[in-house]
Amino acid sequence: MLEIVAVPAFADNYLWLIHDPVSGETVAVDPGDSVPLLAEAERRGWPIGQVWNTHWHPDHSGGNEAVKQAGATVYAPASEAARIPGVDVALKEGDRVRIGEHQAEVWEVPGHTLGHIAYVLRDDGIAFVGDTLFAMGCGRLFEGTPQQMFESLQRIAALPADTRLYCAHEYTLSNARFAAAAEPANDAIAHRLKAVEQARQAGEMTVPTTVAEELQTNVFVRAHDPQDFARLRTSKDTFR
Ligand SMILES: [Zn+2]
């Protein structure tokens, strides 16, 4: 079993450490800030051998060079490699990366950025989805089209229902409030909004999430078509 640890950074980012106790290997997913990440890895005695970047944004890749200097090989999306510090291995759709005996498929999931990738560990029932899908939400469309993001979300949502989705931000409360306004008759959303309010008041994390939870409560996953998705995304951008 892989151990997965969240390292909070900035206002609301989660940097992820994946550790395989069998091989002793450790991967850092999206090391936006090397300082808390390296401190946590050191505290646990987990030297970081690899960085897996999902996209070029600095809050996901700003710590690459420091983690690389500490001994890691940097994997990142090929089409964004020029904008990501320290890339050693450029990844495309269908490529595979490994931690010990565990294998991750590389999926291209454009929308938030054009080159955004996800790391899908099918046999472990885990996916690192960066800023594509959030608990009850999705990333903003900085570079891609509604059609692209709609298809990226549908692809992630077609993973087995018990797949755990590790996203990169704690945005769930804001997403839940929007979801409750967008689907006022959805009991699962109302119930989850209450649970998320309680968790956040207690200072608890609300990620990872699961495909099953998102199918029930993520209005962007539940959008009927790209037009419906676009309407929701635009509405969320100005929701308060
Ligand atoms: Zn981003």
In summary, what is this structure?
The protein has 240 residues and is of the alpha/beta class.
Question: Strands, helices and their partners?
Answer:
Layout (H helix, E strand, L loop, with lengths): L2 E7 L3 E7 L6 E4 L4 H11 L5 E3 L5 H4 L2 H6 L3 E5 L11 E3 L4 E4 L2 E7 L8 E5 L4 E5 L2 E2 L2 E2 L7 H12 L6 E4 L4 H11 L4 H15 L7 E2 H7 L8 H12 L3
Parallel strand pairs: 3-4, 4-5, 5-6, 10-13
Antiparallel strand pairs: 1-2, 2-3, 7-8, 8-9, 9-10, 11-12, 13-14
The structure holds zinc ion.
Structure, described:
By secondary structure, this protein is an alpha/beta fold. It has a single domain, classed as 4-Layer Sandwich (Metallo-beta-lactamase, Chain A). The chain has 8 helices and 14 strands. It has a 6-stranded mixed sheet with strand order 1-2-3-4-5-6. Strands 7-8-9-10-13-14 form a 6-stranded mixed sheet. Strands 11-12 form a two-stranded antiparallel ribbon. Helix 4 packs across helix 8 and helix 5 runs antiparallel to helix 6. The longest helix has 15 residues. The radius of gyration is 17 Å and the shape is globular. The relative contact order is 0.12. The model has no long low-confidence stretch (mean pLDDT 98). Zinc ion (ZN) binds next to loops.
